User: What shape does this take?
Amino acid sequence: MIELPIYNKEGKQVDTLAVDEALLGGEIRPALLKQAYVMFHANRRQGSARTKSRGMVEGSTKKLYRQKGTGNARAGARRTVIRKGGGVAFAKTKERESYRQTMPKRMRRLANKNALLAKLVDGEVKCVDDLTFDAPKTSDFRKLLKALSIDRSCLVALAGDNRNGALSARNLDSVDTIRADQLNAFELLNHRYLVVDRASLESFVNRPVRRTPEKEAA
Assistant: This one.
């Protein structure tokens, strides 16, 4: 069991939460986390990068200067591939490139939980008893982060209906927000700290990796 401290908004410990490592994969699995991270990263690529050949670049085809007598090396048009602003020798012209990767749903869910386990083992999870705010106010959220001694990049997991919390955190540098039910290995590993409220953390930890089949009706 991992004893996770529970803090209030003033940064004082008010309780502890026992987290069972078995629910998060039992042990940290680097190979699984690497596979999930690469998949999430690849699936963000648009595949729309394109370059222009020398025939697509705007500009004159006139020879820059005469062939002989200037003392310079021979030169043709400005659009040649060896000049700045010219075309590309082998231009990318495909309509769409797909870099999409897939993982079985069970592996993906286990990787998400395992990334949380890695954060818990490293002491990088800050659990707050309540993350609701009366009004959207950036200064209040900044005070919260200072009270929790967060000085690096931070991912804030909020309940879907916590709009004031999301608006309070969105203008802070190195702070990103995400819905607690959409936590994934890519976002967890991309930030040093995770700030989450107790209810959302318990819901995520207790979520099954795979659904158990319904019992057959007698």
In short: The beta strands are 2-7, 13-19, 125-128, 154-158, 175-179, 193-197.
